[in-house]
Amino acid sequence: MGEVRRAAVLGSPIAHSLSPVLHRAAYAAMGLDGWRYDAVECGEDGLARLLDGLGPEWAGLSLTMPLKRVALKLADSVSELAERVGGANTLVFRDGRRHADNTDVHGIVTALAEAGLGSPGSALVLGGGATAASALAALAALGLDAAVLAVRDPGRASQAAEVGERCGLAVRVVTLDRVADHLPAGLVVSTLPGRAADAFAGPVAASGAALFDVVYAPWPTALAAAVERAGGTVVGGFEMLLHQAVRQVELMTGRDEVPVAAMREAGEAELARRAATAGG
């Protein structure tokens, strides 16, 4: 039996998080028998109290919405990237201190690079929330110096645009009804939820752009299916989720050899199970 250590994913709602499946698969493949990973429902108001109640057996936390911004205020130290992006999806506990980090950007960069999209040339990002901010930071890391950000309400996209600019991108903000005016682009990144991007399937597919769609269930989205039919390269949200989790396992365990294949297999199997259940 290995040492007893704990980790968890926090957020609200949290019941359908795929993180427990991914992290537990990593622990099993790494022989970390004493490690446990749970899903805990937690809103912004409850995070400080929860953190104060954690014992020394806790190695770290994965954070999803709505906790990514408030986590910065509750950490003892913050990585440069998390500071720049304005949000942390990871808290690592070391020597009684809380360190905030962001692995979403790593997840996007790695997913795109694996798909041969490591040098997209130009990019159009749909949506202006926290994931769009991470996407802009990832595009900057991939060498872009400019991007177009298409949103419903430009007045609510200032935080995402500022993140891009802090990372060295010249960000042009336009409204979603003008998407077609900014095609073709080397890469279209959709951070829109659910079926909100369906209306753009035709124009994006016809433009010949590659696509990164952050949705991972249900999959494929209408947008992803249209781009695939047109012969374009498509990267789904599961790949981002997988690679950000891989980086979290590295940070929380302190080990570099993380079993990506085992995590991918477990995650894909769980998504297939959920799809079959929903369809049945």
Automatic annotation (TrEMBL):
Residues 237-266 form the SDH C-terminal domain. Its EC number is 1.1.1.25. InterPro entries: Aminoacid_DH-like_N_sf (IPR046346), NAD(P)-bd_dom_sf (IPR036291), SDH_C (IPR041121), Shikimate_DH-bd_N (IPR013708), Shikimate_DH_fam (IPR022893). It is an enzyme of class 1 (oxidoreductase). GO terms for cellular component: cytosol. GO terms for biological process: aromatic amino acid family biosynthetic process; chorismate biosynthetic process; shikimate metabolic process. Pathway: Metabolic intermediate biosynthesis; chorismate biosynthesis; chorismate from D-erythrose 4-phosphate and phosphoenolpyruvate: step 4/7. GO terms for molecular function: NADP binding; shikimate 3-dehydrogenase (NADP+) activity. It holds the Pfam family Shikimate_dh_N. Keywords: Amino-acid biosynthesis, Aromatic amino acid biosynthesis, Oxidoreductase. Residues 9-91 form the Shikimate dehydrogenase substrate binding N-terminal domain. NCBIfam families: PRK00258.1-3 (NF001311). PANTHER family: BIFUNCTIONAL 3-DEHYDROQUINATE DEHYDRATASE_SHIKIMATE DEHYDROGENASE, CHLOROPLASTIC, SHIKIMATE DEHYDROGENASE. This is Shikimate dehydrogenase. It comes from Actinomadura physcomitrii.
